[in-house]
Amino acid sequence: MTLSLNDRARALADRLADDADALRVAVTTLRGGTRVIDCGSAVAGGLEAGRRFAEITMGGLGSVAFAPVVVAGRSMPGLVVVTDHPALACLAAQYAGWQIKRDGYFAMASGPGRALIRAEDLYDDLDVDERASAAVLCLETRDAPPDELAVSVAERAGVAPGDLTLLFAPTASLAGGVQVAARVVETALHKLHEIDFDVRRVVSGYGTCPLPPVAKDDGAAIGRTNDAVLYGGQVELTVDAGDEELEALVERVPSSSSEDHGEPFGRVLEAAGWDFYKIDPLLFSPAEVSLVSVKSGRSFHAGGVEPAVLERSFRG
């Protein structure tokens, strides 16, 4: 079965653009024909724009809903993320694995357009043969993409510039906060990939994550959004694996398996000189993880939420 992540995402982006006024987003067209949708930089955007942005990053193979989540007995605003195509939705599409750097412009790119470009080694480990008539990329940045960048991205994706859609939102925006928190299942999948587990064996994913308050600037927002996942994210994955394998695996998945765990992410990043690559990569995963075997029906659990760290982060 072949599912076109980009064609599905383009249909969702069309609906977002059709509702631009209600969602407080702005739609523009660059000289080369690329559609650009600002979800929170020069416009207000909002929570619903962020929810739709997140579903677009997943290539239309995951759902995101607002719901209260319980962290250590306290109800907080939050998100529920569900997918029955975890490897495709979370890694082939949603993972922000491509750094765009060109002529002084920088953005972290997620979304299904990455599956056409295949700029990352992880595609060698996924069953992805993406074919599409259009490309959709989602950028975490405050700056609108210039026309020259769009032309270059379209060429790499193998589509005409007029068939490319670029959505963007800064981290310190309502939409930006939602789309990062919605990566709670994706971080669990990425951690499994990092520790050399075949993520194609993950059958389904269900995750909840607190919704971080919008921050005053992008630096502070990077801290809050990551803390929401690292110290408040709860994920259950259904896996095609036996009990012994999952029991040995589960302790390695949550963020507590990292030596950098325990401090608000902003402090960890500051101590690393604002260089993400100096941070232990095993930190980037949910606070609490359950793995359920489809072979036996047994569940294996590790990690736990850290309300005290969330309190320090969200109120700082």
Quick summary:
By secondary structure, the protein is α+β, with helices and mostly antiparallel strands. Helix content is 35%, strand content 24%. The chain is globular.
Explain how this protein is built:
The chain is built from 12 helices and 12 strands. It has one domain (5-315): Methenyltetrahydromethanopterin Cyclohydrolase, Chain A, domain 2. Strand 1 (26-29) and strand 2 form a beta hairpin. Helix 1 (5-18) packs antiparallel against helix 3, helix 3 packs across helix 7 and helix 4 (86-94) crosses helix 8. With 316 residues, the protein is α+β, with helices and mostly antiparallel strands. The protein starts with a helix and ends with a helix.
N- to C-terminal separation? 48 Å
What is the overall shape?
globular
- CATH fold-level label: Methenyltetrahydromethanopterin Cyclohydrolase, Chain A, domain 2
**CATH superfamily label:** Methenyltetrahydromethanopterin Cyclohydrolase, Chain A, domain 2
Secondary structure blueprint with pairings:
Elements: H1 5-18, H2 20-23, E1 26-29, E2 35-38, H3 47-57, E3 63-71, E4 74-83, H4 86-94, E5 98-102, E6 105-110, H5 113-117, E7 135-140, H6 147-157, E8 164-169, H7 174-181, H8 184-194, E9 202-210, H9 218-232, E10 234-239, H10 243-249, H11 265-271, E11 288-293, E12 299-303, H12 307-315
Parallel strand pairs: 2-8, 7-8, 10-11
Antiparallel strand pairs: 1-2, 3-4, 4-9, 5-6, 6-7, 9-10, 11-12
